């Protein structure tokens, strides 16, 4: 995971320290299925709220969130 991806990951999860703790302890590739599902939900909410242009195409932030979704989803 690149530094920017890790920064964004922690920023998106700042209100959910339990997931940050789990990632720190076990790594992103060893998350529980339940955690993966909840983290993806958090990412999708951020994507919907901040990651789309007016024409519903992903903006730069949205593309970064999509990358994180792929990384976390691969862990499941």
Structural features:
about 80 residues; mainly alpha; about 0% strand
Fold and architecture overview:
This protein has 76 residues and is mostly helical. The protein has one domain (3-74). The protein contains four helices and no strands. The chain has helices at 3-12, 17-26, 33-50, 60-75.
Low-pLDDT stretches: none
Cα shape: elongated
Number of domains: 1
Number of strands: 0
* Rg value: 12 Å
**Helicity level:** over 70%
Head-to-tail CA distance between termini: 16 Å
- Order of H and E elements: HHHH
The computed structural class is: mainly alpha
Tally of DSSP helical segments: 4
Main β-sheet description: none
Q: What does the average pLDDT come to?
A: 93
Estimated share of beta-strand residues:
under 5%
Give a short synopsis of this structure.
With 76 residues, the chain is an all-alpha fold. Helices cover 71% and strands 0% of the residues.
How are the secondary structure elements laid out?
Blueprint: H1 3-12, H2 17-26, H3 33-50, H4 60-75
Helix pairs in contact: 3-4
């Amino acid at each position: 995971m690149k530094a920017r991806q890790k920064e964004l990951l922690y920023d998106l999860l700042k209100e959910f320290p339990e997931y940050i703790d789990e990632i720190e302890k076990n790594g992103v590739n060893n998350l529980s299925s339940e955690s993966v599902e909840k983290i993806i939900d958090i990412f999708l909410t951020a994507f919907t709220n901040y990651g789309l242009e007016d024409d519903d195409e992903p903006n730069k932030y949205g593309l970064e969130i999509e990358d994180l979704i792929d990384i976390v989803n691969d862990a499941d």
